[in-house]
Each structure stands twice: as C-alpha cells, then as structure tokens.
Known about the structure:
elongated, 3 helices, mainly alpha
Amino acid sequence: xxxxxxxxxxxxxxxxxxxxxxxxxxxxxxxxxxxxxxxxxxxxxxxxxxxxxxxxxxxxxxxx
Length: 64
C-alpha cells in the first residue's frame, strides 16, 4: 500500500485530499493502483456524507 491508501484507510485524510495527492503523482501509479485509490476515496466519501462532513463548513484542519 502507498501512503495515500494507508492514510485513507486510517482516516487521516479526506477523500478530496486523497484524490488531489494522487493527481500530483499520477505518473507514479499503475492503472490498478489508481482504481484502488479511487475506490478507497469513494468509500471514505460515503463515510464523510454519513457523518455530515461538509467541506465548505468544516474546520480547515483535518481530523486526527
């Protein structure tokens, strides 16, 4: 697992941050890994929606 996947699984980064981080280094990932990051980000986004997380109104600092 890469650091993006690990942080997503541990809840250290939000889905948008994961996608942004992936896009910064997209050339370093193979297609299957990109698909896995997107899958994890979707799962995280669903959890964020269930928790009522709203990027517009939530604090600037990520959860720990």
